[in-house]
Design brief:
By secondary structure, the chain is mainly alpha-helical. Helices cover 53% and strands 8% of the residues. It has two helices and two strands; from the N terminus they run ββαα. It has a two-stranded antiparallel ribbon with strand order 1-2. The radius of gyration is 26 Å and the shape is elongated. The chain starts with a strand and ends with a helix.
Length: 98
C-alpha cells in the first residue's frame, strides 16, 4: 500500500513507500532525512562492531620464500592454539556461571 508524504524541503506531496531512501518527486530531496541518518548510523555502527570483534591471523602468501612460510606456519599454529585455549576457558566460565 502506497502512502503520500509532504516533502520537508519543497512542501509538495509525493508518493512514499516508508523507506528511508524515498525521494521527493519534485525536488529529489529525502522525504524522511531522520530515518536516512539513523539507517546510515546503524550501518556504520555494524561495520565498526564487525571490525572490533575480529581476530586477524597471520597470512601466508604463496609468493613467500620457503623459510618464511615455515616460520609463519609456526606462528599461525601458536595463534590458533592460543585462541582455542582462550575460547575454551571463556566457554567453561560461561558454563559454570549458569
Amino acid at each position: 500500500m502506497s502512502a503520500s508524504k509532504k516533502c520537508p524541503h519543497c512542501g509538495q506531496w509525493s508518493g512514499w513507500h516508508h523507506n528511508a531512501i524515498d525521494r521527493c518527486e519534485h525536488c529529489q530531496g529525502l522525504l524522511d532525512p531522520g530515518a536516512f541518518d539513523r539507517q546510515q548510523a546503524q550501518v556504520a555502527r555494524q561495520a565498526e562492531e564487525k571490525k572490533h570483534f575480529t581476530v586477524d591471523f597471520i597470512q601466508i602468501d604463496p609468493k613467500d620464500p620457503p623459510f618464511t612460510k615455515f616460520y609463519k606456519s609456526i606462528g599461525l599454529g601458536f595463534q590458533i592454539a592460543f585462541v582455542s585455549i582462550v575460547s575454551f576457558i571463556l566457554w567453561l566460565l560461561a558454563l559454570l556461571a549458569g
